[in-house]
Here is the input.
Amino acid sequence: MPPSYPELNPSTRLLLGPGPSAVHPRVLRAMSTPLLGYMDPEFLTLLDETQALLRYVFQTSNALTLPVSGTGMAGMEAILANLLEPDDKILVCAAGYFGNRLEEVALRHGAAVTKIEKPWGEVFAPQEIDAALKQSPAKVVALVHAETSTGALQPLEGMAEVVHRHGALLVLDTVTSLGGVPLKLDEWGVDATYSGTQKCLGCPPGLAPVSVSDRAGAVIRNRNASRKPSAWYFDLELLAKYYGPERVYHHTVSGTLIYALREGARLVAEEGLEQRWARHRANAEYLWDGLKEMDLTPFVPLAQRLPTLTTVRVPEGVDEAKVRGRLRDEYGIEIGAGLGPLKGQVWRVGLMGYSSRKENVTLLLGALGEILK
Amino acid sequence: MPPSYPELNPSTRLLLGPGPSAVHPRVLRAMSTPLLGYMDPEFLTLLDETQALLRYVFQTSNALTLPVSGTGMAGMEAILANLLEPDDKILVCAAGYFGNRLEEVALRHGAAVTKIEKPWGEVFAPQEIDAALKQSPAKVVALVHAETSTGALQPLEGMAEVVHRHGALLVLDTVTSLGGVPLKLDEWGVDATYSGTQKCLGCPPGLAPVSVSDRAGAVIRNRNASRKPSAWYFDLELLAKYYGPERVYHHTVSGTLIYALREGARLVAEEGLEQRWARHRANAEYLWDGLKEMDLTPFVPLAQRLPTLTTVRVPEGVDEAKVRGRLRDEYGIEIGAGLGPLKGQVWRVGLMGYSSRKENVTLLLGALGEILK
Here is the structure.
């Protein structure tokens, strides 16, 4: 007998965790649009438009800007697998879960990893990168712009200058920053970045927007010809042949997810990046003010606190999992648990994309107040 | 100024090419359902159900049956990257584009590839595999069940017996067969397979269902501990920790695509596999009969002709691209062009999933008749 399950009918959830965030209604609607073939001229136009919108969202003119057909982690692996050849040196700056992930993935591709670590929640200063590169030169320096595990925002001022002075490439994880906090790839001198669609872009997970500077693109092109990236699916030169004018088949791109990303990026363009960043900031400040009134303390000091994801210290004596369970079951609200050393120590509250709305903050604060009183 | 593009409004297309096929209306509707978090208990139940449905569709009891978060090519890479360690030997049987792809991807992961080739459109006999393995033993033998580039269906009778007698594992590409033609993983002794959602399952592209036997799973578990699969994103042991009872975060699975796959697989279960295979067969025969009446000839002899994708010889003197263009522009129908040595020689007509309906065949035959008359 074939298995039999009921019609899809999930409970309503207000997604205020580390991602996915709530998908914008216009994006949900776009996804019920019937598909075009992956070589249909109309579909290729939609791809071009999606790439142009991504360049705007990333604030870059990088030709090599496209969505990898996987989630944000696929984007991380695509960037590292293409930039690094076996035994190439990478300096990974880790002060959270995703910094550690960079090391883990780089090792898979045979890179020689040097890692500088700081306590979770802290950020790196250019002088620290400078000192590390003096001690051990590297081809690539990898930093996390918005560390989803800690809620810290890494400042980029002066960073590319130091990295480039040492002849290295700057790789930036922008999964939880793209479309939510100021990010200016070209102005900041970022050489390669990857992100996800399910955070501040208000789309479902499934695509990883990446962008690669001409300088980093040349490094990829000049790889040892006998040592192609060890993941064929993520080979950016092959992907560029489909996303570029040649239109050579590589894999069957997901029309549905492209529809979603195009619509999500159109919404960013309609709102305007500056206004969008300001909205994320304002709603975060509203949250922080409300937390303060309830004697709840953000884990990260204000100076380096990320507006899109706030880590909140769990008050002593409070069962954090029970609070999350009650938020979910009584109010339909999802917030996240702490990861790694922050497990049990913090809640993670995301205000990203369509989830970043004042009424959501009001509801969360009200619900938390009722549960904690 | 931010770029500005109009609302999504693609032309209506009847997708009768090599994929994507038409997405079933119930699947389209499922995708506009708001998301759950990737650790929400309700979402985890939906994942369990999706995996159970996939086991039914694959006709297997393999515990390690899950959708990889990428397209069919991601599935191919996931299976090869996990089963093969550098310098491991693989015998690739290639009589088409995707046979060659198996070689290309295996080489990326450092495997030692032996390839036996036959002219495009032909299939392999167990004795040929036997002879090849006698000459050059291999850890893995890779075959394409339904070769999308040629329209040939590889018989599996006696195949696993030969492969296992030589101590090898049988890997089968089922991208264009799963849910459309008889496929019985356990009965046939297939050790590992990968497929896609955008063919006979009637879903959009974006997930790659894979299934791995206990025997092949043990090979993965017993890899040299210092040589993990070179693609972290595709590491099946890590994926199994999220899809299995441990529920350890690996990447943010696409809720939308899971909704789609669950609904597509529910539709398979409702119809019943036997009935579904019979429907695909009947509509293909209706097409073949109609082609014959128009003096159009399938490229592959009936005995090994694939019901889900038919390659049709382009009559002499006919501009094949012009015919495809007119089908698209005047009738809203997409069919595919030939690939590789079949470029310009054949059209590729897919009757897969929701696209496999009698009225679609009638329309295509009518349109072709008008254009070719």
